[in-house]
């Protein structure tokens, strides 16, 4: 298919574009910042540019990964989030329905499920989060605008019948966490594969599965994250003593971690459940916590990317963010 990929210069886009091309798709990348997979430089908030791009490149489907996201909060005003994440999504949805597309895929975020209370971990139990979790009370402009974009997808699908799949993706960024420095970054990323992370390669492949399955589904919203080993019954213990629960599932984990000088988490505040994605899209992330332990036991490199200095390309295209 001739696919428009927004955010093609970004971390996800640069992994997704070549995978789509390898499957035979003709990919047109659109981003505010230049990059090897980006043919159109400009903003999704620019309605004329979107319409011209659809015509010039004969676009047949959209994967909308371009956005301002969490680290951008420090760099852009709230209005830019509204312009890019809400108006930009509406522009693409309307252009796609106008062009008669049968599918649309949007990257969303598990971050919109995190209220201030969940973030502060006030509960005496880990919070189990699947797609039915609510009421949703996003704590920042990123979450608020992504939730609005999700709802635009739902509403346009309901009104027009164009299939729309939303992937509520958990963490896959390569840079250091902007709020936690303990444990050190690689140790923290490894721990997150238990409950709130996936590799960028798995994130890309989830989008490919969504693109393929969308017409059979209509509207679908899925958490995309590495499969967690835990169940709801573990939630109280995970909050009280996560390391013991982990050792129950993975008896080899404490020794492998100790050998590396790493620490298992003492307490977990939330768990993302991606089983619906597996059931409906037939996609399960390849890299999970067991893969981390395999790498620790064989001495192989960690199966995830880590780049403490990565900065989103959106800063390079800052002048183009607004329409
Ligand atoms: N990185 C994560 O851990 C993570 C987690 C959950 C969801 N997501 C979502 O995944 C998607 C991709 O994120 P990423 O990690 O690749 O981030 P990224 O910042 O590396 O990539 C986003 C890209 O969007 C582009 N962009 C920004 N404004 C634009 C505009 N107005 N028009 C066109 N392009 C624009 C940026 O230039 C950038 O290249 C985003 O929708 C993000 O919200 C990311």
Q: Percentage of helical residues?
A: 40-55%
What's the number of domains?
Answer: 1
The main sheet comes to: 7 strands, parallel
Any low-confidence stretches, pLDDT <50, length ≥5?
none
Which architecture name does CATH use?
3-Layer(aba) Sandwich
The CATH class name reads Alpha Beta
What is the average of the pLDDT values?
A: 96
Structural class by sheet pairing and helices: alpha/beta
Molecules bound to protein: nicotinamide-adenine-dinucleotide
CATH superfamily: NAD(P)-binding Rossmann-like Domain
Describe the protein in words.
The protein is of the alpha/beta class and 323 residues long. It has one domain: NAD(P)-binding Rossmann-like Domain (Rossmann fold), CATH 3.40.50. 41% of the residues lie in helices and 13% in strands. It is built from 11 helices and 9 strands. The strands form 2 sheets. It has a 7-stranded parallel beta sheet with strand order 3-2-1-4-5-7-8, sandwiched between helices. The longest helix has 21 residues. It is globular and about 60 Å long. The site of nicotinamide-adenine-dinucleotide has 32 residues, from helix 1, strand 2, helix 3 and strand 5.
């Amino acid at each position: 298919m001739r696919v428009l990929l927004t955010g093609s210069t970004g971390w996800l886009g640069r992994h997704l574009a070549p995978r789509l091309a390898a499957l035979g798709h003709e990919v047109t990348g659109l981003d505010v910042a230049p990059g090897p997979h980006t043919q159109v430089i400009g903003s999704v908030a620019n309605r004329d540019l979107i319409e011209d791009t659809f015509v010039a490149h004969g676009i047949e489907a959209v994967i909308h990964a371009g956005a301002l996201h969490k680290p951008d909060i420090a760099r852009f005003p709230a209005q830019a989030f509204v312009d890019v994440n809400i108006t930009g999504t509406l522009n693409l949805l309307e252009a796609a329905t106008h062009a008669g597309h049968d599918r649309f895929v949007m990257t969303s975020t598990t971050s919109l499920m995190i209220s201030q209370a969940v973030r502060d971990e006030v509960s005496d139990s880990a919070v189990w989060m699947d797609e039915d979790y609510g009421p949703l009370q996003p704590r920042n402009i990123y979450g608020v605008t992504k939730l609005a974009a999700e709802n635009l997808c739902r509403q346009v699908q309901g009104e027009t019948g164009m299939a729309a799949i939303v992937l509520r993706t958990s963490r896959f960024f390569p840079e250091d966490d902007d709020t936690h420095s303990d444990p050190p970054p690689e140790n923290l990323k490894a721990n997150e594969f238990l409950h709130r992370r996936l590799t960028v390669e798995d994130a890309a492949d989830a989008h490919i599965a969504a693109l393929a399955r969308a017409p059979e589904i209509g509207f679908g919203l899925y958490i995309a994250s590495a499969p967690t080993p835990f169940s709801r019954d573990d939630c109280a213990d995970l909050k009280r003593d996560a390391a013991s629960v982990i050792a129950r599932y993975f008896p080899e984990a404490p020794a492998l971690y100790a050998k590396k000088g790493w620490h298992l988490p003492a307490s977990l505040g939330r768990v993302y459940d991606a089983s619906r994605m597996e059931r409906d899209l037939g996609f399960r992330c390849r890299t999970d916590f067991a893969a981390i332990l395999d790498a620790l036991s064989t001495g192989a490199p960690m199966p995830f990317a880590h780049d403490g200095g990565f900065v989103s390309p959106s800063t390079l295209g800052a002048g183009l963010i607004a329409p």
